Amino acid sequence: MSDAHAPRARLRLNVAHSSWELIWSHVHRVLVVNLGVAAANLPLLAALQAWHEPWRYPLLFGPLLLLLPGPSLAAAFAYFDAAGPDGTAPVRLYARAYRRLFRRAVRVSAPLLLVATAAVAEVAVLGSTPAGAVLVPTAAVVGAVAALAWVVALAAEARERTTGWLIHLLAPYLVVRHAPMSLFHLVLLGGGLLLVNQAPLAGLAVVPGCVLFVVWHHCRSHPLPGGTTPWHSPRNATN
Fold first, then answer.
1. Which of 154, 84, 81, 79 shows the shortest CA–CA distance to 113?
2. Taking the C-alpha atoms of 13, 15, 21 and 23 in order, what is their torsion angle to the nearest 10 degrees?
3. Where are the alpha helices (DSSP H) in the chain?
C-alpha cells in the first residue's frame, strides 16, 4: 500500500479529566472575581472616564476610592478562601462576602489609603522642587509600602484572623519583611492597573482575577499574629 493511501494518525489530546476540572475551576474563580470587582467599582470606573485628572477632584474621588475598591478586594480574597486553591464556589458567596466585609474593609482601608494618597501627592508636589531629589524617593517608598500593606490587610481581614489596630501594624511589617515578594506584587498590580487603563473592557474581563489570585496565594504563607503558622482557611484545614 502506498504512503498516499496510508491511514492518517489522529491528533489526540491526552488530558486527564482532573486536569480539565482544574482548568475550569480556575477559569470559574477568575470570571467570578472579575465580574464582582467590575460591578462593585463601576461608579469609580465611570468617574475616571468622565474626569481624566482625578487628583483635581478630591471631594469626588476620595469617597469613591475609600468606599469601593477595598470591599471588592476583600470579597475577592474571601471568595478565593471559600473556593480553595483548586475548587469552585457559588457566585453568591462573593456577594455575601462583600456585604459581610464592607464596613471592616472600609475601616482597614482608611488609614493605609490616606498614607498612600499623601505620599503620591508629595511626589507630585515635590518633584520639581530642589528638595525633591531627597524627599521624592522616600515618599515613593512610603506610598508603595502603604499600598501593598493595604492589599495584605484586606487579605487578612477577609480571613477574619486579625482585628483592630493590629492589622495596620502587621501588614506593613509583612510587606517589608517579604520585600522580594512585595516587589513582585507591586509590579503585578501596577501592570494590571496599566492594562485595565489602556483597555478597560478586555482588562477587566481578564486581569483582576488572575492578579488577585496570585496575591492571595502568596498571602496564605504570611504568618499570623502571635504565631508562625500560615494562613489556612477553615475549609482547607479540615481537608
1. 154
2. -80
3. 17-40, 42-50, 58-67, 69-83, 92-126, 132-159, 166-177, 179-198, 200-219, 234-237
| Contact of 142 with 123, CB cutoff 8 Å | no
At 98-142, the pLDDT tens digits run 999 999 999 999 999 999 988 988 888 887 788 777 888 899 999
pTM of the model: 0.81
216: Cα within 13 Å, side-chain hemisphere: 28
Residue 230 β-bridge partners? 223
Q: Which of 162, 171, 187, 58 is nearest to 120 (CA)?
A: 58
Contact between 147 and 171 under an 8 Å Cβ cutoff? The reply is: no
Question: What is the maximum alpha-carbon separation in the chain?
Answer: 86
Instruction: Give me 146's grid cell.
Output: 502603604
Nearest to 113 by CA among 56, 76, 151: 151
Instruction: Tell me the CA distances in angstroms from 206 to 61, 74, 182, 201, 228, one per residue in order.
Output: 25, 19, 22, 9, 34
Of 154, 152, 144, 147, the closest CA to residue 171 belongs to: 152
How far apart CA 68 and CA 54 sit, in angstroms, is 15
For residue 124, which amino acid is it? A
| Nine-digit cell string for 222 | 504570611
CA atoms within 13 A on the CB side of 6: 7
